[in-house]
């Protein structure tokens, strides 16, 4: 592609676990009521993962859905970014697990931790990478917050939920897609929303576990004040950067933390409430997953049209905040991909499982024959192995000799 490059969202997908946890269910776990939760947050229910699910399994399902909409085979992806604060492991990156599972054979992969602002941070990175020459970047927000909640702490456990959303960001010559973004951070508020233990500062010990240091802690009042102040500021700043007026905005897709925070931003921005998409009632706060999930549902509800001016805005742990202004470039409602293209995209998923199995098996066989560091004389090593197996199968005579 010659000339200017723009980064457009060409595919999108979401996945939430099947298990629904209602406010009524929560009232049997902690001292709370449906009325309190709905009045204070707008949340009615949230999804939580089952035993066999994890951040990566949610991310993979949302990624497959996004690739099918884009009609892009996983092998065409240049980079995968997973925004999450509940990664599969401390390391390696959840993005690497996703890369293997979907068969993104030529993609780089990394995780990005910027709390509930993570998806917009990742979208901003994808925009820069695409403008710099990449063709397709897969951006995922995925969380299993239920795994880091203290289910005896009513201040936090009623607020959060699990889920994942993904978008494919592709290069386009048309002036649309991500036109401006704003990223911000105020680390002086780090302890307002955090997991105190399990990192390098307070490593995991029996004491940190018995004191619940591995659970999320939050100062709700302070976070509320921060959110209601920063959200309108970030929207105004990014709208200015895009060269728009506030009245030009067709839809704001805010981070879904609390209906009252969204309503406060609506008033401060002096925008009609119907310009804000809200689905916090059904999923709670899914952190980095909340904006891509809301985007998918806004598209499904017919709230997004080609040429619309969208603002995405998030805030959260860090403290961090982010906003992006994008002009929607993809035609909607989306036309199903031709069947051959769908086949080319979906065939990649079972092939990825075979490829992963083959690579793991090959690694085991290689280690078995050559040892973990490899050896030049592999034939000699193979002979040694065969001899040892032969020795073992002979009947033993006398006491065993010293070990090699
Ligand atoms: N059920 C019932 N009562 C609860 C409760 C619950 N789940 N959680 C707290 N309460 C009680 C408190 O104990 C307190 O009772 P008291 O007055 O008898 O002491 C009362 O409700 C008020 O608690 P407080 O924590 O001061 O409420 P608040 O007005 O700050 O609202 C939040 C609490 C969590 C709804 C609000 O602070 C908030 O939304 N903060 C932002 C959180 C957020 O979005 N975090 C993620 C950002 S990404």
The radius of gyration over CA amounts to 24 Å
What's the quaternary structure here?
Answer: single chain
Number of domains: 2
Please provide the ordered H/E string of secondary-structure elements: EEHHEHEHEHEHEEEHEHEHHHEEHHH
**Full CATH superfamily name of the largest domain:** Thiolase/Chalcone synthase
Helix % is 25-40%
Describe the structure concisely.
By secondary structure, the chain is an alpha/beta fold.
Tell me the layout of helices and strands.
Elements: E1 6-15, E2 20-22, H1 23-27, H2 34-41, E3 45-47, H3 55-70, E4 79-83, H4 94-102, E5 108-112, H5 118-131, E6 136-144, H6 154-157, E7 162-172, E8 177-185, E9 193-194, H7 206-210, E10 217-218, H8 220-241, E11 251-254, H9 259-269, H10 280-283, H11 290-300, E12 309-316, E13 320-327, H12 339-346, H13 348-370, H14 378-393
Parallel strand pairs: 4-5, 4-6, 11-12
Antiparallel strand pairs: 1-7, 2-3, 6-7, 8-13, 9-10, 12-13
Helix pairs in contact: 3-4, 8-9
This protein binds coenzyme A.
Coenzyme A (COA) binds at residues 32, 36, 40-41, 116, 154-155, 158-159, 218, 220-221, 223-224, 257-258, 285, 316.
